[in-house]
Amino acid sequence: MNICNPARPNELGQPVCVAQPILAVRLLVVCLQLLLIFAAGTKAQFPPAPGTGPGLPETVEAIENARVTTRILYITAHPDDESASVLTYLARGLHAEVALLSLTRGEGGQNDLGPEQAPQLGLIRSQELLAATRGYGVKLFFTRAKDFGYSKTPEETEKVWGDEVLQDMVEIIRTFRPTVVINGWGGVHTGHGHHQAAGILTPKAVQLAADSNYKLRGSSSVQEDATWGDRRPILLLDVDRGEKPQGYPLPLDDISSLYGKSWREIGLDAFANHRTQGITGFLNSPFLRRPITVKREDGGDFDLASLNEPLGPAR
Ligand SMILES: [Zn+2]
After folding, report:
1. The model's pTM
2. How far is the CA of 80 from the centre of ligand 1 (A)?
3. Residues with CB under 5 A from ligand 1 (ion)
């Protein structure tokens, strides 16, 4: 298509005509450019969960995940309490179906990024954790637990949280039906009361989920009241992130043949989403590079095979 301008004739007195792409084509190009920018932006923030993306790695992961029957629930108190490396290794390395349960949404903490506080901060932290868990390749649950700021004791925390939090934990266990529960704060008896309470409530919730006498208040679903863990006990593990961890060391620095990075690196890339927690200044901390171990809460021998059981006859 030519566009001619009679107001600007050439030296022969003829109007100057310039070849112009048809408007529709130009619009299409602009739309495609916007689409590419948008797609790149969303991909950077929310990598696809295992088996849900369009690429070869996601397809390979979907096939591997279908071969593993283990479901793992990792329970913590706040967004950013989780070990990104451990979750990524379990989901993308061992191909288990993994979920993170953060009891609170972290609204009681400090905001290192902007002015939002309290409920608004809880909303932002929910989104940050959602973005992080997509990178780890795990599902996400919350309870109704209020993050009321620093708590000195687990007793104080349990008084504020009441019975609702335990009810929510039982409901999540009965509906997600994990074969393994990782107690993120198991055996921790100092520091923040929320952390200690999470460590105390987790084994209680596992026990109550299997108890047919424990009914959920206001339950409207048969599934919510269907017990879980009574026929086959849930394997309860503690995770040790101390300086000299005791137990079975997880191979978090092994390299993924699909992504060419270690499980720890993939996990920490996603962990960087916790921006309101000032996480970018903390990513090189030795704490995040240490070996991490798991051990059974009942003191029994741990077998790594319990974290990625293959399809086969039911046990
Ligand atoms: Zn915490």
Report:
1. 0.83
2. 7
3. 77-78, 81
* DSSP summary character for residue 52: T
CA–centroid distance, residue 178 to ligand 1 (Å): 23
pLDDT tens for 73-115 read 999 999 999 999 999 999 999 999 999 999 999 999 999 999 9
The alpha carbon of 271 and the centre of ligand 1 are apart by a number of angstroms equal to: 14
Parse the chain into domains and list their residue ranges: 2-41, 51-307
For residue 45, what are the contacts with CB-CB under 8 A and spacing of at least 6?
Answer: 131, 273
The architecture in CATH of the region 51-307 reads 3-Layer(aba) Sandwich (3.40)
Quote the ligand 1 centre to 184 CA distance (angstroms).
10
Q: Which of 61, 62, 69, 66 is nearest to 93 (CA)?
A: 61
